[in-house]
């Protein structure tokens, strides 16, 4: 006999249930465990009030201890997938992924709404029922069920509806799902946490309301609800809409004469992909007429598609020439490919495959798990193409096309790579300590995994082995370090391509992508470490600790890494180490020089911070001064945006500045002579934008290289002057850098010149370690582990955490 561990944190309650199954996890396959009935052994629902991240694992421990259940007895993990509170769902999903990975058992997901319905079934209610979950923003997640003696039967798919319109939605759902015996409102019970806000309106409309004890999922409901999945890496939350940024983008793109949203500085003729906009609808119609003949869509048909929320359309461009497009309709967990075409002269370049992948990615964010399409029976090449993506032929639709040709119907799972990292390329083993034999591999393709690497002879290993995770912003990263400081593996999945078209990091997208990528990144990191050690494999329980960035950063991003790491540490029964992200940037200098030792002054310059830190000793820091407004990286991004150059701004401005005159324009150096170590970049940013506007108003062409170089020099001058002052005031003889802006070539060169002139020792992290990475977090964790500074499973995230404060 084995046990199923089930839990949900999608709303204000933390619910945990443990059920027994007549199958042992080691002997029963995923299919058996997916369907196996589970009898409740222990369960509890506890109000969390947004503290589920601190409550979940201690609750699990209490329940298991009460029943004398060991971790090795758990055959499977089941988690609620939502819909519900965004943060709550991600805490649940990330923790479940970590726990299942550590325990090495399957992970299944259930609908939170289904679990609520089954709890109502347990209470004895029979009849039609609506579960309405709070979707925030004056919206509701409704689902219709019929409850009878056999169980809770779902009659509608996941949806998000305005609270004002939900009663009409219910009436329509009842009429469609139960046409022969449509119940009156008085015969339809309403349940769910949306009642906390809308109970009065439901009651006034004639709906009976369930007792509030039934609004949250029950332990029994979690165990009885239909399970999906089985693979921790690919299981995702229930999504019913795109992020706000993406939905607003759709509205903007569906309007005529939208601006070109190409991101970054692209060479003329470069191949790019971006959401289809109304301005290119005529180009789509033109390609349609040439590729589809009598089945071609008109320009009006294309324009009608773009604003629809259940559609996703992407296009490929060479410069501004549209060379391909793909569109899909998302409904009931499936995306139907409506159209796809590529210009004849651009075929066999992977464009169609990439377009399909972009549509699949959006569809997954809208809750789809399957793709379907029709293709002409005579088009064998297209059928082979789709077959290679795992989309298989399931039937024929006779005389489907306008010329009476049959259509082959093909269906399959959403096209995903074997190790799913949410469409992100992996940067693997780019970071190595000085003198370490590990070489940089750069960006790798999805197929270039640890399994393809040659396994060297077994090498001695210095303990402890610690795996660290970083997810404070838009990088999902993992790294394993050995006791002697050797970085055995380092993996980073960057989301920059997903944020570039919005001109900056979108927190909601960042959190979603972390959930999608974290298992793939973790597994790749573990396998790479095994290769480095000359072992055929490495298990999580072979490690000595799990470390994670807990602060500062974007809460929605941090919570994924922390919840996953806590679950992984719990499941693999190893200690947990919490790390401050900013301290990680200090320790990044150890990657350049493992022997570096305090005292020293460090300049931390990034998109979120600009500060000078006196490192008196490791873990003993004093912030000497920081920005009073914009951070340096933020200023680079905003100036780049003002110049129409794209995101991220740092590398783009740097490239243009290399061609310009840094003294061409006298931009202000704020607080240069303030007598303290504070920074201010808001005024500089405003001065640059004002200069741009004045040039444009005067009809003068913009000399972008000179503007970029002059802006960059203004930043560099202040940074270097303040750094010199800090070194003199503290008496430190060593100066270091940290943060993404520390990769700026002009800034690095200026620091080299200043330090050489004044006799200071300069240590700079390698370029690959300036941005967010997990190797620097692992470096901190190694020291904290040795000092016994461990975290417990009540660890939570913090948006802000000063370096000066001990933790």
From TrEMBL:
Coiled coil: none annotated. Its cofactor is Fe(2+). It is found in: Cytoplasm. Fe cation binds at residues 581, 585, 772. Substrate binds at residues 604-608, 637, 650, 744. The keyword Flavoprotein does not apply. One of its GO terms (biological process) is tRNA threonylcarbamoyladenosine modification. Required for the formation of a threonylcarbamoyl group on adenosine at position 37 (t(6)A37) in tRNAs that read codons beginning with adenine. Is involved in the transfer of the threonylcarbamoyl moiety of threonylcarbamoyl-AMP (TC-AMP) to the N6 group of A37, together with TsaE and TsaB. TsaD likely plays a direct catalytic role in this reaction. Belongs to the KAE1 / TsaD family. This is tRNA N6-adenosine threonylcarbamoyltransferase.
């Amino acid at each position: 006999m084995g046990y199923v561990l089930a839990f949900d944190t999608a709303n204000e309650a933390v619910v945990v249930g443990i059920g027994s199954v007549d199958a042992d996890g080691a002997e029963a396959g995923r299919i058996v465990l997916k369907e196996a009935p589970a009898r409740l052994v222990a369960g509890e629902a506890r109000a969390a009030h947004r503290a589920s991240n601190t409550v979940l694992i201690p609750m699990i421990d209490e329940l298991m201890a009460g029943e004398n259940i060991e971790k090795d007895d758990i055959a499977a993990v089941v988690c609620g997938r939502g819909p519900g509170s965004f943060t709550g769902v991600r805490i649940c999903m990330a923790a479940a992924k970590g726990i299942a990975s550590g325990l090495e058992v399957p992970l299944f997901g259930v609908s939170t709404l289904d679990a609520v319905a089954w709890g109502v079934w347990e209470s004895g209610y029979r009849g039609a029922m609506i579960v309405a979950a709070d979707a925030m923003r004056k919206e509701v997640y409704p689902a219709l069920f019929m409850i009878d003696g056999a169980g809770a039967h779902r009659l509608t798919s996941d949806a998000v509806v305005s609270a004002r319109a939900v009663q009409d939605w219910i009436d329509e759902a009842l009429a469609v799902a139960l046409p022969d015996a449509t119940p009156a409102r008085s015969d339809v019970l309403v349940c769910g946490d949306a009642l906390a806000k809308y109970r009065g309106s439901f009651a006034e409309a004639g709906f009976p309301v369930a007792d509030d004890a039934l609004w949250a999922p029950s332990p029994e409901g979690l165990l009885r609800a239909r399970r999906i999945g089985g693979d921790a890496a690919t299981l995702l939350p229930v999504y019913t809409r795109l992020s706000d940024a993406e939905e607003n983008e759709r509205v903007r793109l569906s309007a005529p004469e939208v601006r070109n949203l190409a991101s970054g500085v692209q060479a003329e003729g470069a191949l790019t992909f971006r959401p289809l906009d109304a301005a290119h609808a005529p180009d789509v119609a033109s390609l349609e007429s040439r590729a589809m003949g009598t089945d071609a869509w008109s320009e009006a048909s294309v324009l009608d598609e773009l604003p629809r929320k259940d559609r996703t359309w992407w296009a490929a461009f060479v410069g501004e020439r549209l060379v391909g497009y793909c569109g899909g309709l998302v409904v009931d967990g499936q995306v139907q490919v409506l159209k796809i075409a590529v210009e004849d002269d651009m075929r066999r370049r992977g464009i169609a495959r990439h377009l399909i992948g972009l549509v699949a990615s959006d569809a997954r964010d809208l809750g789809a798990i399957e793709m379907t399409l029709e293709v002409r029976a005579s088009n064998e090449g297209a059928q082979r193409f789709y077959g290679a993506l795992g989309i298989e032929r399931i039937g024929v639709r006779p005389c489907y096309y306008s010329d009476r040709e049959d259509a082959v119907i093909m269906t399959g799972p959403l096209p995903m790579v074997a190790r799913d990292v949410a469409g992100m390329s992996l940067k693997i083993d780019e970071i190595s300590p000085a003198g370490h034999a590990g070489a940089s591999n750069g960006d790798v393709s999805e197929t270039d995994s640890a399994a393809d690497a040659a396994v060297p002879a077994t090498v001695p290993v210095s303990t402890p082995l610690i795996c660290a995770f970083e997810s404070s912003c838009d990088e999902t990263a993992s790294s394993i370090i050995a006791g002697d400081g050797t970085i055995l593996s380092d993996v980073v999945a960057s989301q920059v391509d997903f944020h570039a078209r919005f001109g900056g990091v979108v927190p909601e997208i960042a959190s979603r992508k972390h959930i999608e990528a974290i298992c793939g990144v973790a597994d790749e990191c573990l396998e790479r470490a095994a290769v480095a050690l000359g072992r055929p494999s490495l298990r999580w329980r072979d490690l000595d600790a799990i470390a994670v960035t807990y602060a500062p950063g974007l809460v929605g991003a941090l919570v994924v890494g922390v919840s996953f790491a806590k679950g992984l540490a719990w499941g693999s029964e190893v200690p947990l180490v919490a790390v401050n992200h900013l301290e990680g940037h200090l320790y990044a200098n150890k990657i350049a020089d493992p022997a570096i030792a305090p005292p020293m002054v460090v300049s931390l310059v990034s998109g979120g911070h600009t500060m000078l830190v006196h490192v008196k000793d490791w873990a003993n820091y004093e912030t000497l001064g920081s920005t009073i407004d914009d951070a340096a990286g933020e200023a680079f991004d905003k100036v780049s945006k003002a110049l129409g150059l794209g995101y991220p701004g740092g590398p783009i401005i740097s490239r243009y500045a290399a061609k310009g005159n840094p003294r061409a324009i006298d931009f202000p150096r704020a607080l240069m002579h303030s007598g303290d170590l504070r920074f201010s970049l808001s005024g500089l940013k405003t001065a640059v934008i004002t200069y741009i506007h004045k040039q444009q108003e005067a009809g003068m062409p913009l000399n972008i290289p000179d503007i970029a170089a002059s802006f960059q020099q203004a930043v560099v001058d202040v940074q270097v002057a303040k750094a010199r002052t800090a070194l003199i005031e503290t008496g430190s003889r060593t100066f270091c850098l940290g943060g993404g802006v520390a990769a700026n070539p002009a800034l690095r060169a200026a620091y080299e010149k200043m330090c050489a002139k004044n006799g200071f020792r300069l240590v700079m992290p390698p370029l690959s370690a300036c941005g967010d990475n997990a190797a620097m977090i692992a470096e901190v964790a190694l020291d904290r582990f040795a000092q016994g500074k461990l975290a417990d499973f009540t660890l939570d995230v913090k948006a802000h955490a000063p370096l000066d404060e001990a933790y």
